[in-house]
Amino acid sequence: MATESSESEEEGKITGGNQHLVVEDDLREMGKKAAWTVSSCKTGNGVSSLRDDNLETYWQSDGAQPHLVNIQFQKKVKLQLVVLYVDFKLDESYTPSKISIRAGDGFHNLKEIKTVELVKPTGWVYLSLSGNDPRETFVNTFMLQIAVLSNHLNGRDTHVRQIKVYGPRPNPIPHQPFQFTSREFITYSTVR
Amino acid sequence: MEALLSNYVEKSLNQYMLRNAVFLCERLLAEFPSEVNLQLLARCYLAKNQPHSAYYILKGMEMAQSRYLFAIACLEMDLFSEAEAVLLPIEHLCSEVPNGAAVQYLLGIIYRDTARMKRSAEHFRKALSIDPLFWAAYEELCMLGEAEEAAVYFGDAAIPCVQEHYLGNTSSCLLIGGTNHSFGSSQRFVFEDLSLSHLQQKEQKKPRDISQNNHGGPILTGAVEQITNSCGNTSSLSTPSPVPTQIRGSLFFDSGLRRSARLATPMRSLNTSKGSENKERSFHASTKLNSETCSSTAHQGKLLETYEVAVSEFEATSSLSSTADVKSIQHEIVNTKLRNFIADAATIKSGISDTFKLLRILGEGYRHLCMFRCKEALIVYQKLSSKQYNTSWVLSQVGKAYFELVDYLNADYAFSLAHQISPYSVEEMDIYSTVLYHLKEEMKLKYLAQELILVDRFAPQTWCAIGNCYSLQKDHETALKSFQRAVQLDSRFAYAHTLSGHEYVIMEDYSLGAECYQKSLNVDPRQYKSWYGLGVIYLHKEKFEFAEHHFRQAYQINPFSSVIMFYLGTTLEALKRSGEALEMVEKAIVMDNKNPLPKYSKAKLLVTLGKLNEALEILEELKECTPRESSIYSLMGEIYKQHKKYDKAMLHFGLALDLKPSLVDVAKIKAAIGKLVIPDEIEDNL
Question: Pfam families annotated for this entry (chain B) (predicted)?
């Protein structure tokens, strides 16, 4: 997992960004099972542009800051990574600068779990949700909120081209305490 | 003209010159509309893979043979109710209609596809009792799980039945005994050089006489009269005219119509073998007489030709209906090599008994495999001669047996041999692709998929292989599309549905996965893999009673699978029925000692029952067999933690982490280690 963020949980500055999205095999995209909403948008640049796997289309907000992207799941899920595609070269003053990620059960009890400052990002930006403690590798939550607090050059509205949310793969074999790693075990573990 | 055309159509059909056959048959039908010609045209359409045309022209026809062909067209178009409606009335004529076994088989197929399994099995059994060489019926019975031992059907008791078919019995066959064969063959021998082009030059006179003579009588006697008539009117022979074609037409037509009646009632003149011999001799005599008396005339050749026409028409008539027995006899007569062979009853008997011996072995093997008694199946197949064993069908069956035994290496070997021997065959290649998937042989699987595409792009097995290939590369969306493609190509290919279900479950789409499994079970209720799949879905959803039900169904169908037993054990453990779970897991260990999972389950169960030391013993054994399995060490670490042996726990957790478990497990183990540290600290502080 390539990331240029610093290890600290508080303010971290990220510059640059990858052109290619590379994620560990162990993680899988969880966004399909969630309901995505945004605080505001311009017609034609709505929330669907965030999830269409098309980097040409983007979400454009249309209101006061902070601009919010809300991701709500039907049950608690373990999340580890948030990836955004933002590009200063294309979006200039619309490029997000300060981003805060909050998690909780719903709108009423969201708590900030990470803030980050982007400095002229140019591609995929990886935001890990893990804490230092191994017990905090994942965030187990109903809802995630990505808040754009400010933009580059003090722009009002923001452009985000794509957002992906990753969590760990569950055990394909149900009701086992640990996942199997060896070939012998895996061969015998399913009927196909 | 009618006989000429219909003969020519037959010839074209035999030579697969289908455009010729269809065109000329359509002309034939236009010129001489009759149900027999309609049947011939239907056969042409069916050969050309146009069942809808055959369906259209035969709709409403009443003759047994028409109904049979109509049913075949309906089945090609999946019109089960119509096929059933049309076959049922002739069902009780089965013993008289020569393709009776086929009718029973078709009814069996219809009932199977409309989910009436019991009746389906009955019909397959009837098919076998009528015609013991009907392998397809036995195969279907095995797949329904209803087959008795192969020896019951392919046993010595059935030999006389087959003999009868070949030698013909008095009431159901026109030809009787070996004498007829020699009779027919000698005639053939005489007329070998004559070509059908002479057909036009037949005597035109006595058309009414002939047709009158022919009413209710067999064509042979008619021909005799024809010849005697013609003999008496040699002068009239000189002028060939178009009328002769009409004569032949009516002869032909009558014989066609009368065929079923003829079949049902004993022949007037050829009642018993003795009677036939006499008649034949007189027949011989009369023809010889005829030829002698007319030899002086220049028309002798024509007379012989006439006779030849009569015989060939007779052949044409009988070959119209696809009777396995009578037609085959006719053809065998034509084939001079077989002439002597068939004529000897003893040789027939030994031939039949050899065939039965072969079918017995194959049948037993197939039956065992369908009931998942794989080891027995393998033993039975070993009894085959190496000629028969080294064929793609047998080797594929062997491969399937190893596959069900979870012995994928041997399965790979058997299947690859099968594929080498018959690269054009796609049968069971879907199972082979699954074997390669299990073995994670990406290159081999890709290669197989590519080869299969080149062989047959429209076979569901090809798309199953392609899907497995993508699934192995973790591209589950494309894998799913491939499996759906296979389903589109053949919605009755149960395994494609099952594989689609598996893909949905991997992608965690449980509702669509369950749907696919259900579809698979609708087609084939004995797909234990689909029952298993449903069980897994319920396990994921934590609905343990449902899971148990489904796993038990799978277990009933395949009681020899240690994997199914393992899952059943897991479910029982979740239901807190540890005793039963332990039993089930023990059974699994006995069934397949190489399967490490039931042993792992057993260790887990022993932990919950508090028998920590025994659990550790088992895990130590497992460690020897599979030293790189992280979950063994994790579990041992947990056990030592419970035992308060913190240093050992620490060691094992460390080993577990070294073996690179999944992210979730890494977090779990690290958390567990964290908890270990604290008791140490407390101890230190004390």
Answer: ANAPC3, TPR_1, TPR_19, TPR_8
Answer yes or no: do A137 and B666 touch at CB < 8 A. yes
Helix axes B243-264, B2-14, angle to 10 degrees: 60
List of chain B residues whose C-beta atoms are within 8 Å of the C-beta of residue A183: 440
pLDDT in tens, B427-464: 999 999 999 999 999 999 999 999 999 999 999 999 99
**Are the Cβ atoms of A182 and B630 closer than 8 angstroms?**
yes
Statement: residue B281 has pLDDT above 70? no
Nearest CA in chain A to B637: A178
Helix (H, G, I), strand (E, B) or coil at A131: coil
Asked whether the beta carbons of residue B434 and residue A80 sit closer than 8 angstroms, the reply is: no
Of B532, B626, B664, Cβ closest to residue A168: B664
Rounded Cα–Cα distance for residues B219 and B315 (Å): 10
The helix/strand/coil state of B615 is helix
Span B541-594, pLDDT tens digits: 999 999 999 999 999 999 999 999 999 999 999 999 999 999 999 999 999 999
| Distance, first Cα to last Cα, chain B | 116
DSSP H helices in B233-272? 243-264
Q: Report, in this order, helix, strand and coil percent for chain A, each rounded to 5.
A: 15, 45, 45
Q: Quick one: pLDDT at residue B682? A: 63
Radius of gyration of chain A (CA): 18
| Exposure on the CB side of residue A166, measured as CA atoms within 13 A | 23
* Measured CA distances, B358 to B167, B372, B381, B422 (Å): 22, 21, 10, 21
Find out whether B287 and B307 touch, Cβ atoms under 8 Å. yes
Q: Nearest chain A Cα to B536, which residue?
A: A174
Q: B-chain residues within 8 Å CB-CB of A181?
A: 628-631, 659-662
Please report, for residues B20, B155, B183, B190, the alpha-carbon distance to residue B342 in angstroms, rounded to integers and kept in the order given: 33, 22, 13, 19
Residue B622 to residue B628: CA distance in whole angstroms = 10
Which residue in the set B528, B562, B671 is minimally distant from A134, CB to CB?
B671
Cβ contact B589:B602 at 8 Å: yes
The answer to whether residues B397 and B415 touch, using CB atoms and an 8 Å cutoff, is no
Q: In the structure encoding, which two tokens stand for residue A178, read together?
A: 């640990």
Cis peptide before A96 (omega within 30 of 0): no
Give Cα separations from B376 to B2, B175, B357, B491, B545 (angstroms): 57, 44, 18, 32, 33
CB pairs under 8 A between A and B: 117
Taking the C-alpha atoms of residue B256 and residue B35, their distance in angstroms, rounded to an integer, is 9
A-chain residues within 8 Å CB-CB of B564?
191
Distance CA B476, CA A173 (A): 17
DSSP-assigned letters across all residues of B220-231 = HHHHHHHHHHHH
Tell me how far apart the alpha carbons of residues B587 and B572 are, in angstroms, rounded to a whole number: 14
The CA distance from B531 to B547, in Å, is: 9
B245: nearest Cα among B6, B14, B21: B6
Instruction: Give the closest-approach CA distance of B375 to chain A in angstroms.
Output: 18
Residues constituting chain B: 686
DSSP per-residue letters across B642-677: HTT-HHHHHHHHHHHHHT---HHHHHHHHHHHHHHH
DSSP type of residue A152 = G
Q: Residue A57 is encoded by which pair of tokens?
A: 């289309």
Instruction: Say if CB B636 and CB B613 are below 8 A apart.
Output: no
